[in-house]
Design a protein that fits this description.
It contains three helices and five strands, in the order αββαβαββ. It is of the alpha+beta class. A five-stranded mixed beta sheet has the order 2-1-3-4-5, with helices on both faces. The two termini are 19 Å apart. Bound molecules: zinc ion.
Length: 136
């Protein structure tokens, strides 16, 4: 059982997150619509989008989760309560580390057959590194 705190994300907020993420797909870099977008919800109730930012080297490509977390941080918001998914495992690690810093069990928001599904990041990290005590 995780010691991280979960914040409620009502369906209405989750649907707005999904709507904003979908709308942001047109801003994927460098070619709109050819990449990925997500959004995060902060404890202040603000939503920040992130888009994938592709490098010609590919290894320097930033995933949309990375830019969304940075987008919130640029606005001074470090307490993320939810992010749209699904997310790759690199990004799950980044989301996990954000959760450890804030103490908030970030919920992954997914729409499946028109229904909102929520998965706390702790449930997706069976043997996390670092663990909740910060052990590496
Ligand atoms: Zn990723």
């Amino acid at each position: 059982m995780s010691k991280l705190k979960t914040h409620p994300v009502p369906d209405e907020a989750a649907r707005e997150m999904l709507r904003r993420a979908e709308a942001a797909e047109t801003n994927v870099y460098p070619h709109g619509g050819r990449g990925y977008a997500v959004s995060v919800l902060t404890d202040k109730g603000n939503i920040y989008e992130g888009v994938s930012y592709k490098s010609d080297t590919l290894t320097l490509t930033m995933h949309c989760e990375m830019t969304a977390l940075a987008h919130a941080a640029i606005h001074g918001e470090h307490s993320i309560i939810a992010i749209t998914g699904p997310n790759c495992h690199m990004c799950k690690q980044l989301i996990w580390e954000s959760a450890l810093h804030s103490g908030i069990d970030i919920q992954i928001i997914i729409e499946e057959s028109g229904e909102i599904k929520r998965a706390p990041i702790s449930s997706l990290m069976p043997y996390p590194w670092p663990d909740e005590e910060g052990n590496k």
